[in-house]
Design brief:
About 40% of the residues lie in helices and about 20% in strands. The protein is α/β, with parallel strands linked by helices and about 120 residues long. It has a single domain, classed as Rossmann fold (3-Layer(aba) Sandwich), CATH 3.40.50.2300. It comes from Cupriavidus campinensis.
């Protein structure tokens, strides 16, 4: 099983960034949903218990709730998280990884690095 069978959610309040990441993943065969808000994703997960992506890609700095807070709220349900951000603060990276993030990629990132971090589809 490889990334071509994965379902990934992208949460980024910059629409151009979310679209670019989604295009990259879709070109690799990944099924993608995008959200402009961490709160919107959290509401969807609460409203629909069957909605479970294999991975959530988060930006650190967002307008409603930051990616690190979204990660904290996702921890109880065990969704893997990956950060892609321009936010270059060592404390944010350390916190994200300490809380179990699959990775913390800085923009611009290498496509192959991102694809290597996408987990396979969960059974």
């Amino acid at each position: 099983m490889g990334p071509t069978e994965s379902f990934v959610v992208i949460v980024d309040d910059d629409d151009a960034v979310a679209r670019a990441i989604a295009r990259l993943l879709r070109a690799a065969g990944v099924v993608v949903d995008t959200y402009a808000s961490g709160l919107t994703l959290l509401e969807r997960l609460q409203a629909d218990p069957g909605y479970r992506p294999d991975c959530v890609i988060l930006d650190v700095c967002m307008s409603d709730i930051d990616g690190l807070e979204v990660q904290q709220r996702l921890m109880p349900i065990g969704l893997p998280v990956l950060f892609i951000t321009a936010y270059d603060v060592p404390e944010a990276r350390t916190r994200a990884l300490a809380n179990g993030a699959l990775g913390y990629l800085r923009k611009p990132f290498i496509a192959s690095q991102l694809l290597a971090l996408i987990p396979p589809r969960r059974p």
